Amino acid sequence: MKRTFQVVLIWLTVLIVISCNIYVYLQPSNELTTSQILDLHPNLLMPASYTSGIWIFIFLLHILHASYSTYIYFRKTETWCPLSVLTEKMNRWFLLAGLLNVGWVLTWHNQQYGWSLFFSSALYLTLMAAFARLTKSERTLQLTYFQHVSLETPFIIYIAWLTFVFLSNLTVYLYSIGQVELVSNSLGYTVSMIILATILALIQAFYFKRPAFAAVIVWALIGIYVQQHNGSFSQVGYIALAAILLCLVASVISFWRKRSLLYVR
């Protein structure tokens, strides 16, 4: 019964998160879409609108994670093995992240940027806690490639994109409280944010061997390059391009090193 209840909670969380995001996309609060809300706070860190399509991939990974968790909970085993224990602990963070995602989406689309920043920060910290648990478990568990993709990758991709979401949310919040000169057309502020995202990508790629994290940062930086390289601040585009190349190389090297640690069965 306990396992059945946990599975129901997991799938309910996935359903609520996806439904909430679809709802605000189709029926935006105050008659404003996400892109229009961003247009109210123009800044050089704003990527091309198509980059938000990564949410579709993130939600597909949510479904994959829920599906594999269901398999782990109901497979016929006599003992609650270490993999089952890890899955149960990861799903606690997964459930909390789902609630925080809904809070972030609703406050963002109601232009409550202070609360939106709070929820995005809490969501980021929750995912980082899950990431820490995964990293610790890797030292004792020998995960197959499919287990890695099903249990780890959904959190890694989520964390990477939330890194960029948090920086964007912070930028919009600063804009909304009157720090327009700091974030709107400030080359220094934008470059510092790009450098910060790049440093995080390099740490994840080389120290934690998470190539997917760096790959997501590349996706976000491509959006910035496309948006800015032909504008008045073309320097931002070229700086983003340099960061793209650096993160891309890091991702490839990290993937090559990571593959030797996974068991393909």
TrEMBL record:
Entry keywords, A to Z: Membrane, Transmembrane, Transmembrane helix
Phylogenetic lineage: Bacteria, Pseudomonadati, Bacteroidota, Chitinophagia, Chitinophagales
Entry-linked PROSITE patterns: PROKAR_LIPOPROTEIN
Transmembrane segments: 7-26, 54-73, 93-109, 115-134, 155-175, 187-207, 212-230, 236-256
Domain of life: Bacteria
Protein name according to UniProt: Tryptophan-rich sensory protein
Annotated organism of origin: Polluticaenibacter yanchengensis
